[in-house]
Specification:
Layout (H helix, E strand, L loop, with lengths): L10 H15 L11 E5 L11 H19 L3 E5 L1 E2 L3 H16 L3 H4 L1 H25 L10 E2 L3 H16 L3 E11 L4 E3 L4 E16 L7 E6 L10 E4 L13 E4 L4 E7 L13 E3 L5 H9 L27 H15 L2 E14 L6 E11 L11 H10 L4 E3 L3 H10 L4 E2 L1 E2 L9 E6 L2 H13 L1 H8 L3 E7 L1 H13 L2 H13 L3 E7 L4 H9 L3 E2 L3 E2 L1 H5 L2 H4 L8 H6 L2 E7 L3 H16 L4 E7 L1 E3 L16 H8 L1 H11 L5 E3 L3 E3 L6 E3 L12 E2 L6 E2 L16 E3 L3 H20 L16 H22 L3 H28 L2 H22 L4 H14 L2 E2 L5 E2 L19 H23 L8 E7 L1 H9 L1 H8 L1 E7 L8 E5 L3 E6 L6 H27 L1 H6 L2 H29 L1
Parallel strand pairs: 1-2, 3-4, 9-11, 15-24, 23-24, 25-26, 34-35
Antiparallel strand pairs: 5-6, 5-14, 7-8, 7-13, 9-12, 10-11, 14-16, 17-22, 18-20, 18-21, 19-20, 27-28, 27-31, 29-30, 32-33, 34-37, 36-37
Helix pairs in contact: 1-26, 2-21, 3-5, 9-10, 9-19, 10-19, 13-14, 20-21, 21-22, 21-24, 22-24, 22-26, 23-24, 23-25, 23-27, 24-25, 25-26, 30-32
Bound molecules: zinc ion (ZN).
């Protein structure tokens, strides 16, 4: 039965149809059974986010793995879900409420703000999940999880409680990245660094008791002088040795601070060799303080970035206003020495785009270092899992990133001053002294309910003393004046140095009520988002319950993620897995390359080079998008994609130039239709007069063309299936071309499978593409055409064509599932019994068809070499035909000088050579001589001469070619002159210069070829 496919593949129609079909069949769903599982958890996208190219890359690769393993017979589970993304989400919603209602989070209150964010979440979660479906992700959608849903929240509380109980979570005062606008600490990954112009001021402090002696130092943040607690010099610096141990006075406050020696902070080679030390507002100074705790630490900022009570008369000023005032006062007092302009790297908050302040605050931490009993701590456990090879990175070099970061064993700040997230289940009360603390503990133990909870292990008490505050208070007491003692008593009440923390395992309103009645308050903070996402590999399968899913799918097989979050996410998942389940969370971690534009810049909508995957699906189809994603996933760290603006009028791709980016160009004229448009960028509004272009790349044409090529070959085969019957194949009895294509198919299938095992995605794409496009479509189908017309050979060749096409559709399916399913369904109509090596009834969908596996003895390297040699000869003849513009109907006479063995082989393949190359007379053998007027080509195994006698007028041809040669030489000279001009090379954009260099190489190649042809014609 013949089946006729439409003339062209319609991606939109296929996407709509097969998404509905797969959803209805629920192929993505998995339940534990007797098969071997293969599981992946999705890196949960931010719930308020929209799909970008990073997602497209990452999720396409996961889908390729899942579809492939499912076909291999594994029970494949791809767990989908989204992340509540604490600060990112809260910032977006707060901004929107401010824009629409002019209300802040404090106007709304905690409960109302959280309610609003949930509404927003419901709306946006559907959007991002829908977009993942659009690119074809075959997730187990009915298991979709959310990091803040009830089940995941239970896992968070359980983990927090256990870590608290086991002493891994502690309260500490540390320097954190502080966002003065959002009023929260942010992690390093939520910040970015930009070079900004700044002043670099030099001041001096007078040394106490030594008239006319000063210490000079420089700073980019003069206001931090208010928080200085020391001046530091290098211990070996002769200039200052006699001053170490003395004190200087901060003129602004009249406060005395010591001069200390520290070899790590001060560098005698830099500036004056002396530095001021502000432990409360600088990470390096803070580190110095930890080595010299006696200098103390002073915080001068309020959470909103204004100066606090420690700043004396500057209290209440914004930090930048205070900077100006401080400089002015130092100058007036005669302690200002000079100012330079500098460009310095400054850290900004990614969410509010305001400068980060290093800020000393009380936070909750997870201890990463080794345990007090000497046992390995979290960091070491996670390092061992990778060093021992239990968790493997692909490419392997990324293990270094992981190990280096963990090697620092830095404690992890897990509290965030936000409202959107998992609220910390700890109730605390401050105590002015140790006695008060002890009374609290006695009360707690006397309370029957609380006591009972502690006895069952569902309540944990932890005492904590703020050592820095205690030290400050001791100093006040030591002064001993009535004023100092009064101040001490007041401060001790306002900022108590002792704390009692009570963590509750479960939300138990009776316990909470009694704690709160006694004066305990639940922490206002929520947990860092990574605290919940680190549980993702097991919270999604039901942990802390021992579910059948957890038992079956955990540890998961592979994690696919980006290198940016190896430390923040991958490392912490390993810790959480080992801690909660005593097992690694995944066996393999594949790290995707980073996608950049032609200029090496990251893609982003704000720059104007951000390609939107949904636009690509619209313009080229989801398969084309996916094909390109797989193609760029090679071994390199970065992958570049040329980006173009799509003309909104005619669709022409106009390359994005650097001067178009960041809204630097308002208007561009299309190179084709000449109509104007606006290049991509963060334009504040629409311009009805000037449409904004979408972004795309010509690279997506490769996948689209590939789908079309396959479609056309399949269409031809399906139209020639009248009389098809299925039957087994015995390669030994088949003609040479059939044995060849089966050998190539067996080799290709084996190669693709091996490459997938090693995550060499780009080579997988190239291998399937080359086999399908060139060997199958261009060669085998052409070679098969003759037998299709021959009643004796027809059934045999039909079986071959259908069998190989069936295997190709399966190989293509993980990468391009839509075109694969379309062809599979057409094959199911025309040839329901098919397949290699034995025909079988085909599966109802390619998604659940078995992955091709062919007998290894079908691979025949000798056969592959023979056909490759024949192809080389055919290509040579075709080239000559093109070069001399001989029309395709004119048969050519070809002479091949070669060994007897090769001649015998050409004899066997003679029919194909004459058919495929349009050869009339073919001569071969060791005695063949070069004829007059012939084009020559030499290969390692033969010399081919294509006679041109009678086909062209040699004299006229030489004349024409000499004219062409002169033109090319002129063009070459002009281009070379341009490149020799330094003015051009230094001023022109780099890509223009590169183009000119490529032109030189191209022209030189053309000239050599024309010269060779002229020589041949004259011979
Ligand atoms: Zn146009």
């Amino acid at each position: 039965m013949a089946t006729e496919l439409p003339k062209a593949f319609d991606p939109k129609e296929a996407q709509k149809r097969w998404l509905a079909f797969w959803t209805e069949k629920n192929y993505g769903h998995s339940e534990p059974d007797g098969r071997t599982p293969y599981s992946i958890v999705i890196p949960p996208p931010n719930v308020t986010g929209a799909l970008h190219m990073g997602h497209a890359l990452n999720n396409t690769l996961q889908d390729v793995l899942i579809r492939w393993r499912r076909m291999q017979g594994y029970n494949a589970e791809w767990m989908p879900g989204t992340d509540h993304a604490g600060i990112a989400t809260q910032a977006v919603v707060e901004r929107r409420i401010w824009a629409e209602e002019k209300k802040t989070r404090r106007d709304l209150g905690r409960e109302e703000l959280v309610r609003r964010i949930w509404q927003w979440k419901d709306q946006y979660e559907a959007r991002i999940l829908g977009q993942l479906q659009q690119i074809g992700c075959s997730c187990d959608w009915q298991r979709t999880a959310f990091t803040l849903d009830e089940k995941r929240s239970r896992a968070v509380r359980e983990t927090f409680f256990r870590m608290f109980r086991d002493g891994y979570i502690f309260r500490g005062k540390r320097l954190v990245n502080w966002d003065t606008q959002l009023l929260t600490s942010v992690s390093d990954d939520e910040t970015y660094t930009e070079d900004v112009k700044s002043g670099f001021w030099t001041f001096k402090y007078p040394v106490k008791g030594m008239p006319d002696t000063f210490i000079r130092f420089s700073t980019t943040r003069p206001e931090t002088m208010l928080g200085d607690t020391a001046v530091c010099v290098h211990p070996s610096d002769e200039r200052y040795k006699h001053l170490v141990g003395k004190t200087v006075t901060i003129p602004l406050l009249g406060r005395d601070i010591p001069i200390i020696a520290d070899g790590q902070l001060a560098d005698p080679e830099l500036g004056t060799g002396a530095v001021k030390v502000t432990p409360g507002h600088d990470p390096n100074d803070y580190a110095c303080y930890t080595r010299h705790p006696e200098i103390g630490i002073i915080n001068i900022l309020n959470p909103d970035g204004t100066i606090n009570e420690n700043g004396g008369k500057y209290q209440g000023m914004d930090r930048y206003k205070a900077r100006e005032a401080v400089i002015k006062d130092m100058e007036e007092k005669g302690y200002f020495e000079g100012k330079e302009d500098r460009v310095i790297p400054l850290k900004f908050s990614d969410r509010s785009k305001t400068p980060i302040e290093p800020y000393l605050s009380d936070q909750w931490f997870v201890k990463m270092g080794d345990r007090d009993d000497g046992q390995p701590g979290f960091a070491q456990m996670a390092m061992d899992a990778v060093s021992s090879g239990r968790v493997k990175f692909f490419p392997a070099r990324y293990a270094n990133t992981y190990l280096e970061w963990l090697g620092e064993k830095r404690d992890w700040c897990i509290s965030r001053q936000l409202w959107w997230g998992h609220r910390i289940p700890v109730w605390s009360d401050g105590c002015p002294d140790k006695e008060d603390l002890d009374q609290h503990v006695s009360w707690l133990r006397a309370n029957p309910d609380l006591r009972a909870a502690e006895d069952t292990g569902d309540l944990v008490v932890s005492e904590h003393a703020d050592e820095e505050l205690s030290r400050q208070y001791e100093n006040l007491c030591a002064i001993g004046t009535p004023e100092a003692l009064a101040k001490f008593k007041q401060l001790r009440r306002e900022r108590p140095p002792y704390y009692l923390h009570v963590a509750l395992h479960f939300e138990d309103s009776r316990l909470v009520e009694q704690l709160e009645k006694r004066g305990f308050h639940q922490s206002e903070d929520v947990l860092d988002t990574w605290f919940s996402s680190m549980l993702w590999t097991h919270s999604t399968f039901g942990w802390p319950d021992q579910t059948p899913e957890l038992d079956y799918y955990y540890p998961t097989s592979t994690l696919v993620t980006s290198r940016d979050i190896i430390t923040l996410w991958v490392a912490r998942m390993v810790i959480a897995g080992l801690y909660n389940l005593n097992d690694i969370p995944f066996h393999h971690v594949y790290i995707t390359p980073k996608m950049l534009d032609t200029f090496g810049e990251g893609m982003s909508k704000t720059k104007g080079n951000g390609v939107d995957p949904l636009d690509i699906i619209e313009l080229y189809g989801a398969d084309a998008l996916r094909y390109q994603m797989v193609s760029i996933a090679g071994e390199t760290q970065d992958s570049r994609l040329p980006v173009s603006n799509v003309c909104p009028h005619c669709g022409e791709l106009n390359a994005v130039k650097q001067e178009h980016m960041y809204m630097r160009t308002k208007k561009v004229a299309c190179t084709k239709c000449k109509k104007p448009f606006r290049p991509g960028g963060p334009w504040p509004d629409e311009d009805p007069e000037l449409q904004t272009a979408r972004q795309a790349s010509e690279r997506f044409e490769i996948g689209r063309n590939f789908a079309n090529k396959l479609w056309n070959a399949a269409r031809f085969i399906l139209m020639n299936l009248d009389g098809y019957t299925s039957g087994p194949l015995d390669p030994k009895s088949l003609p040479i071309e059939d044995r060849w294509i089966l050998s190539r198919l067996a080799t290709t299938t084996k190669t693709v499978t091996d490459l997938l095992e090693e995550y060499h995605f780009s080579e997988v794409a190239r291998t399937i593409y080359d086999f399908t496009w060139s060997e199958f479509c261009d060669w085998y189908v052409e070679m098969a055409k003759g037998r299709l017309k021959d009643p004796a050979g027809r059934v045999g060749v039909q079986r071959l064509l259908v069998g190989v096409l069936d295997a190709i559709v399966k190989l293509v399916h993980p990468i391009m599932p839509f075109v694969a399913e379309s062809l599979w369904q057409a094959l199911n109509e025309a040839a329901p019994d098919r397949g290699l090596p034995e025909p079988l009834k085909a599966a109802e969908s390619v998604m659940i068809a078995p992955w091709p596996a062919l007998p290894t003895d079908w691979q025949d390297p000798a056969m592959e070499t023979r056909i490759a040699r024949m192809q080389e000869l055919v290509r040579i003849v075709r080239d000559v035909r093109n070069r001399y513009s001989v029309d395709s109907k004119t048969p050519l006479e070809v002479f091949v000088r070669c060994s007897e063995a090769v001649a015998t082989d050409f004899q066997a393949l003679r029919a194909f050579i004459t058919l495929l190359a349009g050869v009339g007379k073919l001569h071969y053998g060791p005695g063949v001589a070069k004829p007059k007027q012939a084009a020559t080509q030499v290969t390692s195994e033969f010399e081919a001469y294509v006679s041109l006698e009678g086909l062209i007028d040699p004299a006229a041809e030489v004349k024409r070619l000499e004219k062409q040669l002169a033109e090319k030489r002129k063009q070459l000279d002009a281009t070379k002159a341009k490149l020799a001009n330094e003015g051009f090379v230094s001023r022109a954009p780099a890509e223009v210069v590169a183009q000119q260099r490529e032109l030189v190489a191209e022209l030189e190649k053309q000239i050599a070829s024309i010269e060779e042809t002229i020589r041949e014609l004259k011979a």
